[in-house]
Write a structure and sequence with these properties.
6-stranded parallel beta sheet, 11 helices, alpha/beta, 3-stranded mixed beta sheet, single chain
Length: 272
């Protein structure tokens, strides 16, 4: 599908910049903005969020967490014109997405469309996009989202944001559990190479590929944030505690937790 509308893209972080560059080659006009200036790399950079969205038919946000989205939204919502579609692609959960919808000016609509994937797929347009919203708004967002990846329509408003937390809860907890299993292997005298090979040959093959990735760039602090938003039971809570046990790993990719030298929560030990 062809993109015919002017787009404003707010948030040029690890994921946002390659996504914005994908859209730059497909839209008649693209304006970008980032909280830290100077990351636009040749794209048309606005000085403020309100300036970026002025005259845009579609606004895309890709920011780090609910607080960041809420803060930036306050700065651009008053500048949105009736008929604007806001595509919110950050991982913020359905509750935060509903709060943002409640603040929309008259005539402005919103789709929640968080993504699964890392920097490489963001650059090649191979993300998985979980899209939630009214049918007409999803139809309008489709050409933009298809440029970024494979679109899975999840249902009404908030459904995309909700499914993203379900998926991330499973993935992050599973990668964390792999790290725990490798520690067990070390303590039992099983070589890491053999343990990884055996785990990769079974039903955990996909998780093992993620746990051993050298290309993904999803910081542990953001993985822990997703588990916080999921507000799950004891398994997800334990995974979050493990992720946060060593602040030095906060900016490392999630795969760093699946090594034989992972941090452990205070007081945690294996017993014979």
């Amino acid at each position: 599908m062809e993109i015919t509308e002017r787009i404003a893209f707010l948030g040029l972080g690890r994921m946002g910049l390659p996504m914005a560059r994908r859209l730059a080659g497909a839209t008649p006009e693209l304006a970008v903005w980032n909280r830290t200036p100077g990351r636009a790399e040749g794209l048309s950079e606005a000085a403020a969020p309100a300036e970026a969205v002025r005259g845009a038919g579609v606004v895309v946000t890709m920011l780090s967490d609910p607080a960041a989205v809420a803060e930036v939204a306050k700065r651009f919502l008053p500048a949105l014109e009736p008929g604007t579609l806001w595509i919110e692609m950050s991982s913020i959960g359905p509750q935060a997405a509903a709060g943002l919808r409640a603040q929309l000016p008259d005539g402005v609509t919103m789709v929640d469309a968080p993504v699964l994937g890392s920097v490489g797929p963001a650059a090649t347009g191979d993300l998985v996009v979980y899209a939630g919203g009214e049918a007409a708004d999803l139809d309008r967002a489709q050409p933009v989202l298809e440029r970024l990846g494979r679109v899975l329509r999840c249902g009404g408003p908030g459904a995309g944001a909700a499914l993203k937390l379900v998926v991330m809860g499973a993935v992050v907890a599973s990668v964390t559990a792999v790290g725990e299993a490798l520690t067990v292997a070390e303590q039992l005298g099983v070589s890491e190479e053999l343990a990884r090979r055996a785990l990769s040959a079974g039903p955990l093959a996909g998780i093992m590929a993620r746990a051993g990735s050298t290309e993904a760039d999803f910081p542990i602090r953001l993985a822990a944030k997703d588990l916080t938003l999921a507000n799950g039971g004891p398994v997800l809570q334990a995974a979050r505690t493990t992720l946060l046990a060593d602040p030095a790993l906060a900016e490392h990719d999630l795969s760093a937790i699946a090594t034989t030298h992972r941090p452990r929560p205070a007081g945690h030990a294996l017993h014979p």
